[in-house]
Amino acid sequence: MNKELEVSTHYEHGSLIKVIEDGFNREGKAPSDITLDDMSVIDEFHIGGRQASEEFLDQLQLEERSLVLDVGCGLGGPARFVASRFGCLVSGIDLTQEYVDTGNVLSNWVGLDKKVILQQGSAMALPFPDGQFDAAYMMHVGMNIADKKSLFSEVFKVLKPGGIFGIYDVMQVGSGEMEYPAPWAASENTSALASPQDYRTGLKEAGFNILATRERGDFAVEFFENIKRRMMEMTEEPLLGLHVLMGRDAKTKVANVLTSIKEGSIAPVELIAQR
Fold it and tell me: Using CA atoms, how far apart are residues 202 and 145, in angstroms rounded to an integer?
């Protein structure tokens, strides 16, 4: 099995849209009643959820006329947030067909299917014309892609001159060993953690200028501690939440990431660059 297929398989669920729709139905909400805030419990699959999206994406200098690319869009939660908040048109690409199909249904539910278009494909061969986008971003994507320079070169090609590229990834910030499974990989075989310096080097080699870097380790600890506390307080599993995407070993994945962040070996990091 090649690496991209292995990564895609890791994220597959099998009946994701049915589980989501059934969960909302049991909460008394039909698709026409569901809001972006309702969806954020399931479609913001990254450390910090909606709060992280807001604080990160607000740095991308987006305007209503902006054409935006979401690299590794997953279910499209951040893409819908961008379209709703800024009025942008957002194209998303993801390896996992089920995520793309589910995400397009969710966009339709909240009336954003004309603003947000998700498609299956590889970030290593972006199917867009050169210079199409005003901005691009990726959130918790690079941990599955070892060849950062080639990834960043693909993004560079499809950005307009002066375009902004934002990255919010988990990065290796210390010397400790990561325990698996993690939310992004069942084992080290499909994990491609790298240091912020590795990211900066790859960006510069691809032609980008680095504008800003921010490590968010403390923010991540608080986020995971809250999740852990809620899990311990629950008498039964909630209908919807990130556990739906992470599977039966969600608690183990959360615990492994939290331990590594507390030990100082990994942390989510924001990088903002410009073409």
Answer: 12
Strands 89-94 and 159-172, bridge-based pairing: unpaired
Give the pLDDT confidence of 129-143 residue by residue, as tens digits: 999 999 999 999 999
Supply the angle between the helices 77-86 and 49-57 in degrees, to the nearest 10. Answer: 50
pTM of the predicted model as reported, rounded to 2 decimal places: 0.93
Quote the tokens at residue 225. 């501690």
pLDDT tens digits, residue range 251-267? 888 889 989 999 999 99
Helix (H, G, I), strand (E, B) or coil at 91: strand
Q: Which tokens sit at 251?
A: 């608690």
- Residue 136 bridge partners (DSSP): 69, 165
**Antiparallel, parallel or unpaired: β 89-94 and 67-71:** parallel
Domain membership of residue 59 as a residue range: 3-274
Q: What is the tally of structural domains in the chain?
A: 1
Query: Which CATH number do you get for residue 158?
Result: 3.40.50.150
